[in-house]
Amino acid sequence: MKNILVGQSGGPTAVLNASLYGVIKGFIALKKSIPRIYGMVNGVEGFLNGQVVDLEREFSDEMSLEKLKTTPGAYLGSCRFKLPDELDDSTFSILFHKFEALDIRYFLYIGGNDSMDTVSKLSLYASKINSPVRIIGIPKTIDNDLILTDHTPGFGSAAKYVATTVREIGIDSSIYNTKSVTIVEIMGRHAGWLTAASVLSRQYPGDNPLLIYLPEATFDVEDFLTRIEQAFLQSKNLMVCISEGIRDKDGKFICEYDNHVGTDSFGHKMLAGSGKYLENLIRDRFRIKVRSVELNVTQRCSSTLQSLTDVNEAVWAGTFGVNKAVAGETGMMVALKRVSNEPYTLTYETVDVNKVCNREKTVPLSWIADNGTDLSEECIAYLKPLIQGNTVVPLEDGLPVYAYRKNMSE
Amino acid sequence: MKNILVGQSGGPTAVLNASLYGVIKGFIALKKSIPRIYGMVNGVEGFLNGQVVDLEREFSDEMSLEKLKTTPGAYLGSCRFKLPDELDDSTFSILFHKFEALDIRYFLYIGGNDSMDTVSKLSLYASKINSPVRIIGIPKTIDNDLILTDHTPGFGSAAKYVATTVREIGIDSSIYNTKSVTIVEIMGRHAGWLTAASVLSRQYPGDNPLLIYLPEATFDVEDFLTRIEQAFLQSKNLMVCISEGIRDKDGKFICEYDNHVGTDSFGHKMLAGSGKYLENLIRDRFRIKVRSVELNVTQRCSSTLQSLTDVNEAVWAGTFGVNKAVAGETGMMVALKRVSNEPYTLTYETVDVNKVCNREKTVPLSWIADNGTDLSEECIAYLKPLIQGNTVVPLEDGLPVYAYRKNMSE
After folding, report:
1. Does pLDDT of A379 surpass 50?
2. What Cα–Cα distance (Å) separates residue A275 from each residue in A131, A183, B55, B153?
3. What does the alpha-carbon distance between residue A196 and residue A213 come to, in Å, rounded to a whole number?
4. A409 falls in which pLDDT band (50, 70, 90)?
5. Is A75 helix (H, G, I), strand (E, B) or coil?
6. Is A262–B257 a contact, with Cβ atoms under 8 angstroms apart?
7. Does the pLDDT at position B271 exceed 80?
8. For residue A296, which residues of chain B lie inside 8 Å, CB to CB?
9. Strands (E), B104-243
10. Strand residues in A83-145 grouped as ranges (E)
11. Scanning A251, B182, B304, B331, which has its CA 20 to 30 A from the CA of B17?
12. End-to-end Cα, chain B, rounded Å
């Protein structure tokens, strides 16, 4: 048993495929001793249904492998699949029989919190049955909420997207000489990392976004309205960035306040987001122009705003994972360890995946400034290195060219 | 009277400032004979309130002028202001007195349909009072709906944004092995040009977006649902692009069908967009995963996805406008005339602004294919040259640096 198996799991990011690229590169470097590299299609779930591809054949020409590096999304397809809690469930023995059938020795799983739960369970099962299969997790999430790692691949590119786009929306919303408020709602139900990145959008002191609200701090509606009113004494066009998961002092999501907006013509309950709720609140109170913008899914899958730092780290996390598995480690997750901010220096290590899974890293309260409306210099120093550098995405006819599997959804 | 005055008006685009840059460049080339160049702040409306800046002083260092070229939005600020219909209204004499006070001989107004109405009225008034002030319009709109010009500066960049982003959303929405529909709603109430650009997103025959609907063709709800059902026989993850202004056979906006969704907690009527309406419709009918994404304001103000072709054309439209005004033309709009598609060749001319304003150019019905669900090869050939080339936006700390007036909103 000598082969490598790699899978992708959970939500897409801009660099999930960069880690897959890194795993393949790791395989290529060790090709003398490892005959094959297989890819799970649609993660563990697809693998259980027999969906697997030979990745060497898939990327037989080097050009397509290079394309993979900057392709967003999940080339192999993904899944949201939780393994049973009981290790004597037949799912485990089925999986390990499938490993055996393909001569798998090393299994790399690229994903977030739930995927690390899979890595944990599979490695515990391997140990239980004395299987030699070594299982390593490669971290990936735009939410940056995994513990024991300085940050997660995928976050830097999403942060760069948010910082750039919020700067552009700020310009867009300030061209008229009339009072206006623009609310930008950013992904992040529990952890405010991505919203925090909007602090980088400011070009000069006093520039928008004026206020930034994370789920980690309490959101006080009256304080918010007072701040808006006061800000209008200084400037006409205000922008506010909020996490989708902002909460009041009782822990109630702000978006839940608006669950009485009625039903649509099909009888479905209409739920407005936090941004929409605050938009209506401000319009009602001040009778001025208000717009709320929900940054859409491109915040997690834009190749145009990939951070080169993020892509390079994602690639190396993949290769490092292969090397560690081959060196005999199992039940571990690749982690990023920051040595210094200036110059930004990073090392890689592995940490016990059992300590990582099912926990959540949020923004430290000490990094949240101005009564929960801004971020500290320390936070800015943490964020800045992660968005540095731009990638060069291959273009054809003016558009980015991506690696794809035509039969993806067959 | 020898000076130049320039203003920006209407909604922002990615290259509205590129045209301002072009006007300034035109001035610099003629500096021997033209002493000054002034900028209206917030268009004609701000100018009436005395808001004007000396643009030579504003851009005294060349670096900041170069930054202007790739800065989205409206550097000078904009307005939505319609001049009175009666030429004997005092507004006109006030404006021309202000022109006189600044020794203005040439007035360049960069904008869309409404701004061309301003150019038309001012030039008619100038003729009426025998004023030597020459007035030229520089076209600008992401909607591409001005007549007598092949296309409008601003459209190419917005089209490139739409084509790129739709391709990315298509990747994002196809990673799971479960049936799903993703609806992308694109700007365009009456003209479907921008939505048509999503046809460029396809990487291979059969790729998403599966269906594309413009306001120019009738939208039939039952036909739409039948097509969705049939498409699921081929593929699991479907994407549909729609203009915000799609209409049924009676001319009723699809979004109007959902105006009974209720009121929010402040008593405001909640209006769902066309995308939201179709999302609910599909979920109700097929009980599958559906998401609707409204491309936000970044579709009109992203510098990251500027088309180099568009930027260059916007710059030259500005410079060409200055040259034509100095050559004695007035009451004209700069127009782009396509000579050939391959190689893409363009010339510039001026057209009578009175024939342009208050009219609207929509997508020819002959370019709409497959019963109103796709675009023809002819349309693709028209669109392709407009999105070619990427700009290099100056970066600082990993983010684009933009020209700005700190006191913009004071």
Report:
1. yes
2. 51, 6, 38, 32
3. 8
4. very low
5. coil
6. no
7. no
8. 169, 293-296
9. 104-111, 134-139, 180-186, 211-213, 237-243
10. 104-111, 134-139
11. B331
12. 30
